Amino acid sequence: MKKTVLSVLLVGTMFSCNSIKNIGSSTNIQQAATLLGSLSSNSTVQQISSLFTLLDTNKDEAISSTEAIGSVAENFNVLDTDSDASLNLTELTGLLALLK
Fold first, then answer.
1. Which of 2, 39, 82, 89 is 20 to 30 A from 50 via CA?
2. Closest to 70 in 3D by CA, of 16, 31, 44
3. For the packed helices 2-38 and 45-55, what is the interaxial angle rounded to 10 degrees?
4. How far is CA 72 from CA 10, 35, 64, 67, in A?
């Protein structure tokens, strides 16, 4: 009986942690969308760096096509200058040139 209760508690805890993680990711996406919408030709590398951090939801130091949103997703192939199917910070900085 104790093993069953502990198993149920463990599974419940795992699901609740995963839900919290998803809420955090959703918040990051919303913040990224807001930041992306405010970018202009006068934007800074610091703003692009912030955008990169928000979009990199799995924290692997790269933006995949599934993590990209908005104009990043629309211009993904243009920004992906090394054609490795992901964007690093340097490649994402190329977004500034597209805003001019």
1. 82
2. 31
3. 150
4. 39, 12, 10, 9
What tens digit of pLDDT does each residue of 36-51 get? Answer: 999 998 999 999 999 9
The enclosing H or E element of 87 equals: strand 86-87
| C-alpha torsion angle, residues 73, 65, 51, 59 (rounded to 10) | 170
Give the separation between CA 49 and CA 75, rounded to whole angstroms. 17
In the chain, the amino acid numbered 82 is D
User: What are 94-99's contacts with CB under 8 Å, separation 24+?
Assistant: 95/39, 95/48, 95/51, 95/71, 96/39, 96/41, 96/43, 96/45, 96/48, 98/71, 99/39, 99/40, 99/41, 99/43
Q: Which amino acid is at 11?
A: V
